[in-house]
């Protein structure tokens, strides 16, 4: 991993990131912090604790002299999937964990932020700085998940409560299709800025002539698909996608509700009428693919997307590609527990490219490889067509 | 249902009961109120809301002039299984309900208590008073469930937190076996005091000569059963019980943990060493039955128990009987939604008799028929032998 | 167990029973013998082998001098639930067992019948004769299950094939209701004829005045229940019954199909129109109970039924009672593997009384206690009302 | 699809293929034809019927004048996943279908073979000939599945029966690693011979320098992996792979049994000791990938494999690649029901390249793309390493 290491900025950035995480939770009541409505949605309390544990576990415990753990129990409570670091609470049971309380967790955050902040004043090796950087990137990734999870929790309350938030999709300008010429292109992260191991290994790839839409598919277009029977025509779907539609009884994007003949949509600002001009959000890969089939087009590959990215107007929603999440040639898994970060998810997942309105700014870059299983859609995810 | 109707007392009892429910929650943090670790454990918040909703739905909305609902949403949130009263949140989803907040629910309680309290000052018909009485009995039943559910929530925290509580099992005196003579006996509730519909229909039953233990089985006796291989000898178990032992990997009562060779037990006061002289608690019907098989004895029937009850020293733990929960001759289901209270559970459940330390005082009577499915054991339940 | 032991007859009866089992399979092709469409339906081959294994395991291997097992593998293949006798194939996997072939199994039957038949010419102790008797009773019970299982297998073929069979329900005469007087009655098996351990322990029971229908509920009456919305009115159902109706999407008795507005029914003679005058068959306990609720009546207890039995015209269909299957006072489980026969099923099951057209003649007696879980209905089961 | 159309050969090939299918079943008893031990293993009878139905449905019914269906029911019974062609029996229920009998199915095969054979004497259009060709390719694919399914059925019999078969793995010669130079290569099917739509769209791809093993991983090498704790070290596994190992309790390849300290293996010739020098068979993608991790190497991509194929000695076992099954650039799905053949499986599956000893000869070509989900391993599948 390449890391930019100007220590003075690092401390400021660290404190800013820590603050941002808590800012995302500003509309929450204590009651909202511990619930886990489905296995893949973690309680906000867990995110707050886990991002803190990461710094305590991989930085302070390892490198800071005389550091005393805030509490022995917290390691067990807030480990996520790092099997190398010891026992951990089962993912599906996170919502049972009412203790430590949210007040305790905020204390834990303060304690660790304070110690790490002091530690950053010391003269640290590049190795340590790299881990701090990863911890910050990690916390930023959780900021985005935190937004998704809060939306899920609130979107499943009978009263559809609204939050204070600046997140608001905008209409995109339609400039038709962008053309890519056939040829060999370079793919992967080149600069000295931070990136994840899965973006590294700059390499060549051969791309065939194709066209990529300048804008995301809108709600209006998606409603046409629904009204044309998109969800009932198995010819448009992958076999697994069709099974998913049937077993989950899917008939619209997530958070859509038809009320008295009108499509309503839960947003972070509450339940509102679906705006036909905005990009469609909260669709799974299966839905994105079926929509493209219906249009007689397809989804771009992640390589086509990366090549076209300079000409694209992106950043509102993550965009499903038709690329499976696989290692680049010469991909090297990082050593130790940090190595569990990416490589072990390189099967059964699809790549999303771009960024969303919930993405922290330093996570928005053309080589970033986001990934989810093809049935998920509680994240901010839209559709860009190719042909 | 027979009801005792001295109105002045009624209001006092009503307010006392409402206070007791909240007293049970006195050690809880806001974080603890919304979780539902397994489907059969309801969030404490739900109990607080549901018992309140019962009074609002069946008394105030029906009978109090110009009563205004506290909130339209609460009816949907806090209905339990009364299909006759409209839509309701699915039982397994109660733990997702972070809103209304616990503060809102306490406000709801105050509002309804206030209105009901005022209403009780009016000149009310016997019918209305009966429903109020049922509401109070209902809330008392939930008090006991609340204790069980809080214990389950706390007993599944990594740190095993302790509560403030007076609940403490005592050693019982062993007076050997009590004999019952063969003959015809009367069973069922006779006095004018309140009882549930399932206790009514006083009727005769024929009982054969038998002996019933004067005390409950102790932890010490139960550990002998464990050490003799009780959980690995299928000959001691019902076929369904054996399936349960295997699929749930049961090797001890609930809340027991073997730590460095010593049996520890989570109690409301925290994790303590198992006291050999105290009654064994948190066993399922399957375990109670298997233990009796191992002893070469059996469990009493609920009729034998009721006949013997005057001579028994009971009230620490509910006692599994070998009687299925079935209607008495001439059982009459109550009319309307209240009729959903008991009759519809009269299949696949077994009767427990007696009472527990968590039972509110007016629920402790010799004709009381408690019932659970044979695999449950998060309630306070022990074993009394017969032969 | 009481046993009638005239050896000469025993051998004749043994051979007759063995022949009858095979006669039930006379319409089957080789293809039909190995399938297990649901876990509770065993392949016909399994019944043929298992009933044979019982004689080999409990009689020949134990007592016959120099007896050589037909094959070592067969014991593993055809043990059912006798945990005491060693490993066994999992119940749900019986349908995977294509080997031994059905030809091998018929050879196995001949081999064991031959040896047992020779063995019966010796001078045998009462103990041995008792086990032979149990083996014959056991095979007869499997004859009835074999009929049920064959019906299930054929009733789930797309082409609804017909069998050669004499089984044909008849219209019953309606003599209104039979009255039983209040008082103490004796229950249980008294004669010296064979019976199962669960019928023994003659004992007294107190019965209250009641009335029992002289005939079973007809298809015509049941269609009224359906058309009155019986399957959509939760007030008529047990809580568990209602869950069953919803999750299994039950809208009629088993084997009923509505075709162009007409109720059709798969019978052993193929798919025929439902005859309104015949007794309704293939209903679960939940359905029987709901029907009785709808009629404002109830099901009889097994004790009321036994007392009334002399006056009843029964034997076409097993009749659901409202009695849970529980041990009689002083019930003694038989020793050893045979003891696994009955006692371990005495939880979560309901008693059926009477007999069906598929019941072998010596299994038709007023004290016989049949039992099934309340959701099953692939057996021949009807409804008799009480009030 | 490109098709070779010399009609005279076509008829001979057709009849030869039909015969081969039946030859694979030559060791089966009638009992073996109808069972479905797990959902993904189809009964042999079903394969025999389904491949026949394909010709009847897509050729004879469509194009042959005055053709009369063999039976109306067979279409329902033997449709597989062609949603476009109407209702079909649920995949998981195929094993319940004891009727039509295997004799009927052989009659069906003769009837359709006879009619199709006559039809091929007519002067047929290229379109029709193409569908016949696809039908033959389809039947050949099922021949391989038939071998897998028969092995699964026999490998799960308590007595591990042997079959008559020529299938026998051979030791491979180890010539070290083959090098591929960096550059642009052409991928995809070029000749006029038959291929599937997923191989078409010849296109360029950029390949980086790499090395590919000349031989498959042996049983001996795989046992080293097992003994080094390969199945207990989560660092070697994908997250999904690790879940699979835990939930399915995987500790060795499929069909392996450790008996008295010796690794035994069920083969089509019965249970034999594992031969250390033969290629390891019946591993999932997860296992192949974990083995490569343990070796510090990786699996080749399907493109590397295709480029190297001329130098490889392959054809004993299908070889897992690290490529997800995705469409080639300009992939065109075939029209109509035939279009359901490939494209809809292009998610959640991994590509296998090469061929196995069970592969019919015309299915063995370097561009052939086989695919399965990463957890399956009842097919013949081995491991080739790359670095």
Structure write-up:
The structure is a homotetramer of 387-residue chains. Chain A is an alpha+beta fold and 387 residues long. Chain A is built from 9 helices and 11 strands. In chain A, the strands form 4 sheets. Chain A has a 4-stranded mixed sheet with strand order 10-9-8-11. Chain A has a 3-stranded antiparallel sheet with strand order 5-6-7, with no helix packed on it. A two-stranded antiparallel ribbon of chain A has the order 1-4. Chain A is globular and about 65 Å long. Chain A starts with 6 loop residues before the first helix and ends in a 5-residue tail after the last strand. The N terminus of chain A is likely disordered.
Index terms:
alpha+beta, 2 domains, 11 strands, DinB-like (chains A, B, C, D), paralog of FGE (formylglycine-generating enzyme), homotetramer, about 375 residues
Parts with pLDDT < 50 across at least 5 consecutive residues of chain A: 1-5
Oligomeric status? homotetramer
The level of helicity of chain A is 25-40%
Rg for CA atoms of chain A: 21 Å
What's the number of extended β-strand segments of chain A? 11
**Ends of chain A: how far apart?**
35 Å
Strand content of chain A: 5-15%
Instruction: Look at the structure and give the mean pLDDT of chain A.
Output: 92
Write down the CATH class of the largest domain in chain A.
Alpha Beta
Q: How many helix segments of chain A? A: 9
CATH third-tier fold name of the largest domain in chain A: paralog of FGE (formylglycine-generating enzyme)
